[in-house]
């Protein structure tokens, strides 16, 4: 098989890139290790910046988003038993964010691609990416049958922290795909990162000393907007997936097992951490319960030869600022523009600047995600001084200050197109 751009991974990054390239007339093939049902079921992000929603609309994937997405014009920061609303449009010149689950973004993009897009091979696990230093990279992959095992959320139900896993089922013969460029969109445990020669890139990494216990609950959200609490017992987040499904998280120590937290204990803790005035949290049946660690990673540069990395393959952010999916979209918009320019003009100038152009946005999102994480979480061993610092930062951000405007700007994100 041959193509112009080989895309590894059919997560949001790979699927959006395929869509953008298809519309620009650049040939591509997408290889995805998992089966379609698995990819469409994987619970992860929920919040789209306005720029990300605009890109989906622009490439024809905005119909259901506009019908079913929940537009949010603000969010609340809660601390010391009080709620402080951050109004996005007034602080950002009119920007908003949209709650629309990543599962639905992926379903919409897959449906479009299967209807009229470039080839998308499910169950095609890339085992090697070769010759990225030369003119003609080569991808080796095996096709696998789904074995019915649900590995959606990692080993213990952790959501999305998907580690390297074995084949899904019996592997067929190895096949090859020749191409001119490789887009590595296969997440942090994919084949693209493994193809980087030792010493070719630098990996910056940080692991935070706490995790998130998340639940999906079959109950209508208790608030129309996101509530983020910086309680001295730790962070809590009230979010939603749909008007009938709530998504809630609490900070827990690293190493926590979901089994340590019976449902009532979770609801009681959420009540304490999210408390503000007479507000009441509605309880309901817990549908899923999972623990995920918080980490930051950046690979620098995001390119080696003819292999360009995008999304979680290139960087990870802690979920506290909801930037991961949005950053992935930012990368592939930049990448699609670079490949399109090269395809039309023969010039590699934008491909050569791809990494630098992305990294400015990536580090900005890293900084904001780090700030939100340390602002709202209580580290092990924190004392009264640490808490006073945290409350001082929170008060500054919720007052009529330039800091409040900066918070809103970062939260709503910059336009991508
Ligand atoms: P994905 O989604 O991991 O997709 C990678 C795809 O590559 C496939 N793959 C392979 N295919 C072929 N051969 C191989 N050898 C392969 N190895 C892997 C995989 O099967 C998969 O289909 O990466 P992508 O596309 O870069 O997308 C990144 C986002 O998924 C991620 O950043 C976000 O989910 C992060 N995130 C959030 N981002 C936001 O923008 N807003 C949010 O509100 C938000 N909330 C979250 C989040 C992440 C969370 N977890 C799981 C840490 C909330 C949580 C709890």
UniProtKB/TrEMBL annotation:
Residues 139-175 are annotated as: Disordered. One of its GO terms (molecular function) is oxidoreductase activity, acting on paired donors, with incorporation or reduction of molecular oxygen, NAD(P)H as one donor, and incorporation of one atom of oxygen. SUPFAM superfamilies: FAD-linked reductases, C-terminal domain, FAD/NAD(P)-binding domain. The keyword Methyltransferase does not apply. Keywords: FAD, Flavoprotein. It comes from the Bacteria. InterPro entries: FAD-bd, FAD/NAD-bd_sf, RIFMO-like. Residues 2-368 form the FAD-binding domain. The keyword Nucleotide-binding does not apply. Transmembrane segments: none annotated. This is 4-hydroxybenzoate 3-monooxygenase. It comes from Streptomyces telluris.
């Amino acid at each position: 098989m041959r193509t112009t751009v080989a895309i590894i991974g059919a997560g949001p990054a790979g699927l959006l890139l395929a869509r953008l390239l298809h519309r620009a007339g650049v040939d591509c093939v997408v290889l995805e290790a998992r089966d379609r049902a698995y990819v469409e079921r994987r619970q992860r992000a929920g919040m789209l910046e306005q720029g990300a929603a605009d890109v989906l609309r622009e490439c024809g994937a905005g119909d259901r988003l506009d019908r079913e997405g929940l537009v949010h014009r603000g969010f609340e920061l809660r601390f010391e038993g009080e709620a402080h609303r951050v109004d996005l449009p007034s602080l950002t010149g009119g920007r908003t964010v949209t709650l629309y689950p990543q599962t639905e973004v992926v379903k919409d993009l897959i449906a479009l691609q299967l209807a009229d897009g470039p080839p998308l091979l499910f169950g095609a696990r890339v085992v090697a990416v070769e010759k990225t230093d030369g003119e003609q990279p080569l991808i080796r992959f095996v096709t696998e049958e789904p074995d019915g095992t649900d590995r959606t959320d990692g080993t213990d139900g952790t959501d999305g922290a998907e580690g390297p896993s074995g084949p899904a089922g019996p592997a067929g013969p190895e096949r090859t795909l020749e191409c001119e460029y490789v887009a590595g969109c296969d997440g942090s445990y994919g084949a693209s990162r493994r193809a980087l020669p030792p010493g070719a890139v630098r990996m910056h990494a940080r692991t935070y000393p706490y995790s998130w216990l998340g639940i999906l609950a079959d109950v209508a959200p208790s608030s129309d907007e996101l509530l983020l609490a910086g309680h001295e017992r730790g962070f809590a987040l009230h979010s939603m997936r749909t008007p009938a499904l709530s998504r809630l998280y609490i900070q827990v120590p690293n190493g926590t097992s979901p089994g340590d937290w019976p449902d009532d204990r979770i609801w009681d803790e959420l009540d304490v951490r999210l408390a503000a005035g007479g507000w009441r949290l509605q309880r309901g049946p817990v549908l899923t319960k999972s623990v995920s660690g918080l980490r930051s990673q950046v690979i620098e540069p995001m390119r080696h030869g003819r292999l360009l990395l995008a999304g979680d393959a290139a960087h990870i952010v802690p979920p506290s600022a909801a930037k991961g999916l949005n950053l992935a979209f930012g990368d592939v918009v930049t990448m699609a523009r670079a490949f399109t320019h090269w395809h039309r003009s023969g010039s590699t100038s934008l491909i050569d600047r791809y990494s630098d152009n992305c990294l400015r946005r990536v580090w900005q999102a890293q900084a904001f995600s780090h700030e939100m994480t340390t602002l709202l979480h209580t580290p092990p061993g924190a004392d009264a001084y640490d808490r006073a610092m945290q409350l001082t930062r929170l008060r500054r951000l919720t007052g009529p200050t330039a800091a409040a405007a900066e918070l809103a700007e970062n939260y709503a994100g910059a336009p991508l197109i």
